[in-house]
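Hello again,

I reread your note about wanting to compare the complex against the isolated chains. To keep things tidy I'm splitting this into two emails, and this first one only covers the full assembly. Below are the input lines as submitted, including protein chains and any nucleic acid or small-molecule components. They are followed by the predicted structure of everything together. The single-chain runs will come separately.
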Amino acid sequence: MNKKRPGGQTAELPSRPCLLSWASVVGKKESEGPLADTFDVASQDDTFGEKSWEKAESAMQKTALSTALKKANLAPGALDYLLAGDLLNQCIGSAFAARDQDVPFLGLYGACSTMAESLSLAALLLDGGFGAHTAAMTSSHFCSAERQYRTPLEYGSQRTPTAQWTVTGSGCVILGREGQGPRITHVTTGKIVDKGIKDANNMGAAMAPAAADTILAHFRDTGRKPSDYDLVITGDLGQLGHQLLAELLNQQGLQLPNLADCGTLIYDLNSQDVHCGGSGCGCSGAVLCGLLLNGMRDGRWKRILFCGTGALLSPTSTQQGESIPSVCHGVAIEQERQGA
Amino acid sequence: MNKKRPGGQTAELPSRPCLLSWASVVGKKESEGPLADTFDVASQDDTFGEKSWEKAESAMQKTALSTALKKANLAPGALDYLLAGDLLNQCIGSAFAARDQDVPFLGLYGACSTMAESLSLAALLLDGGFGAHTAAMTSSHFCSAERQYRTPLEYGSQRTPTAQWTVTGSGCVILGREGQGPRITHVTTGKIVDKGIKDANNMGAAMAPAAADTILAHFRDTGRKPSDYDLVITGDLGQLGHQLLAELLNQQGLQLPNLADCGTLIYDLNSQDVHCGGSGCGCSGAVLCGLLLNGMRDGRWKRILFCGTGALLSPTSTQQGESIPSVCHGVAIEQERQGA
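Full-complex prediction:
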């Protein structure tokens, strides 16, 4: 059986892999925002007891994984594959978190789309018949990202109005071929879209066209209507990127009444001094593994399209005058009907 | 059907995805080595006509992809997924190469194991029923790697005897659910292994235990014997790592008479001043997509186990005193019997 039409971007997953459990871990600023109650672990110490920001980021992933495994009542050895990535050079946040896990490991780099990318592949592997349990995981940390991508924290550089604030957070989902929980029905894998935006402080504008491209592909491939989703939510477009996305979709004749963005939800944009909102792998990771999946479990949403957005630039590509290639991966998640 | 036993690391691929075509692109030094005749494109200009080493690396990937597609007589639009990664921060070698391809893109980070990781996932997706064609690709470039991981080229730093030389090269494989060519029968996904080696100039020693772990898992999971393979070949352990691997396997009672390493084959270790041999994603990528797959096509080997080895460190993790987590992914490739 071919589960993906030639030329399309969407795979249909007949086995509907199940999200058995999930966990979110965040830092202090996130614990002071509007989603505070949705996270599993919120540390008041952004070092997480470690000696460097990079080690702190790994510690977040380890905590997210162990918390999610505990909720699913599984040992790490029960995982057939762990798929993870992050923003740090050489993805050390994930590699050092996975080092102690004794689990087959597949490292990913999808920039801030990594929660959706890891979830996509974790679901595709299960639907393909490769094992019984997989884990999808990611993280970002404001302090490790800021010094790697921008300027030393101590420098106190002023931020542009279009800038976003990298979320200190991690999300981890445990998937099963069988079990109870929300299920993944479709995976829409993004193409790289680059409309020539070169401003690394305006990533929402760079990523919005990629998000539009993938969302349009999803509706085209599946034949679904906007009303089929209670929520279509992007990862970290921020306030400006979110508006641009709505405009781009409208231009293509797609009105999504329930369009939202994790980056505008995780902080209070009026009071938390984050400019256009949250960003980073941990933004969509922690919002998925908090607000969104808890909300599905509690009956708030029946069907969502989770669209992780990523800007595939590096400081080096920016210094060399390059524009920002972006990508967005969409994952359709559906809550099982009660008693079904 | 579950194609992977719980607790094992090996997936069996009943559909045996086919390697339809492959292409290798290398630089000047590689074109002066013993494998010169096996590469599709060997440039005498390591800039590949670009203005930076990073752009040169992307150009190599683009050439590898277009060459492989041409050999398979396919347009980029025929690809259901492109899986690629490289060593550069934020994997810009791959992102900028994939930007112009109009193909669903999944970015990977497996350090120098990326050729095996991308091949693994490209095969698993096809066997899972997700599309008809996939591509697996990677690259490395001596000049972009040297300045990112070590010192500015102009500095002319002296190299330790255990050091290896990052290959300027790229490899790309086009896979099909159907067609003619060598076939992937098993994929053994590695766990992260870290025996505490901290010397970033001795990555062979860091990676050898990971290679041993995955090779032992492959034989344990499949019940195969060493004589079932004409060749078991690692990616870039180099001379020292290769010797360590043989010792580690011997200690576990596994003698592999046909054990080799891409890193010791790609250069003449006596005359090319590369110390312990070649390294980098492009090392195993270019050797797979030249010597190895050409050799299978020509009847030199019937069955090989291709084991990409990766050291998941970063300069930051080394500066913070960390040891080197390593990983190795194994892919069993089998040439179709004539007339079968």
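For quick reference: Chain B has a mean pLDDT of 96.

B.
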